[in-house]
Amino acid sequence: MTDAGEETLTQAKPGADDRGWYLYGITRHGTLGTTRAECGDGDRDEAEPAIDSGVADAGPVQMLDCGALAAIVRLVPLAQFGDEALRAHRYDTAWLEAMVRRHNQVIAAIHQQQAILPAKFGSVYARAEDVQAAVAGAHDALLAQLERVEGCDEWAVHMYADRAAIEQRVVAAHPTIQALQQEIAAASPGRAYLLQRKLDEERAATTDQALREMAQAHYEQLARGAVAGQLTQPTRSAPAAHGEIEVLRAAFLVQRASADTFLAELRSCVESREGVHCEYSGPWPPYSFAVPIEEEKAP
């Protein structure tokens, strides 16, 4: 499975009638039930919004039997998912956003009914047998992951800090920094210059350490109320609004029954800490907690 926008096929000029199997995710063997309507297929009430695949000549969403597991798939024309087509759309943000949105809508519809391990956008197989073989090769890992995500949602958490405010607070009581400041006040101009450089380095290092420790403490606090957590490197080089920097970026797998408790804990992490604020989103299908499977890419 590959990230949105990446090339997923290696075929050379597929024919107009060639079809491949677009994979949305892995779930337990069963039936789609009412989810078929939510995916834009089958009988549905006229008031229900259909989720179009966004691909001309695409088939309906269906479950492909993989033993105890099932793959949520749709037949799509390979001509629209080949190397040339994907290269043409690589910088077409409107097309990518529309396709990713439809991909996620199908996954969300299944997620409302039963546990699903989402596939990444653009996973296409040449034959149904290739999908089944890939699932069979990771059967035990996929089944274990489905058991873990059963009854769970993913919550994304981003924590930001005002570096200047944190620095002011942590250096105020730091003994090494206090001692350097006193030395500078009594030093000659030449020595004061060298000491100031050392002081600046010490202030930066102390602030960086404080930010790391704060982020780790908050992550561990939140992880205690989750089934699982996953850290991602924050984008320190891109300040957020008001000059803040991102200090924590994480995803948490949370039991729905514990969601209120988790969110209360999340809010309490930053309520009494000046210079820090948190943004979160969810509930989502467990995108960050799906086991990838080996792919036999479409030719």
Overview of this structure, please?
- This protein has helices spanning 35-38, 83-89, 93-111, 128-137, 139-149, 163-172, 175-186, 189-223, 259-271, and strands at 19-28, 62-66, 69-77, 116-118, 124-125, 152-161, 228-232, 245-255, 276-284.
- The chain has 299 residues and is of the alpha+beta class.
- The protein has two domains: 19-150, no CATH class; 154-284, Alpha-Beta Plaits.
- The strands form two sheets. Strands 1, 2, 3, 4 and 5 form a five-stranded antiparallel sheet that branches. The chain has a four-stranded antiparallel sheet with strand order 7-8-6-9.
- Helix 6 (163-172) crosses helix 8 and helix 7 packs antiparallel against helix 8.
User: Taking Cα atoms only, what radius of gyration do you get, to the nearest Å?
Assistant: 25 Å
User: What is the number of independent domains?
Assistant: 2
Mean pLDDT: 79
What structural class do you assign from the helix and strand content?
alpha+beta
Q: Approximately how much helix is present in the residues?
A: 40-55%
User: What overall form do the CA principal axes indicate?
Assistant: elongated
State the low-pLDDT regions, or none.
Answer: 1-14, 34-38, 42-51, 295-299
Strand content: 15-25%
The span between the termini is 16 Å
Largest sheet: 5 strands, antiparallel
The total beta strand count reads: 9
Determine the number of helices (DSSP H or I, runs of at least 4 residues). 9
Spell the H/E element sequence: EHEEHHEEHHEHHHEEHE
